[in-house]
What we know:
By secondary structure, the protein is an alpha+beta fold. The chain is built from two helices and four strands, in the order E-E-H-E-E-H.
Amino acid sequence: MYSKCWLIIRDDSKKTFEICGQEANTNSFTNGIHGMQKAGMNVSCMTPPVTGKSSNKEVIKIIGYTKEDGLHERLMKEYREITRRDFDQWEG
């Protein structure tokens, strides 16, 4: 069993990805991505194990995707705007 996994978020519309770090428990990360998907965002995630071959995030490549620094923050901001808009409509 692996002790840690990489947290990788992908913007499937723009074909970009970002490695957000390593965690032993990926539940919070994957739940956040699931929430974005339910809000209609075209995103996905990967949580591959950290191994000897992939212990450095610079060696991780995803075929067909380019690396985008700040992707996670950009998508979180978009998700907050969507949920705020939905909440404001429900409140009024």
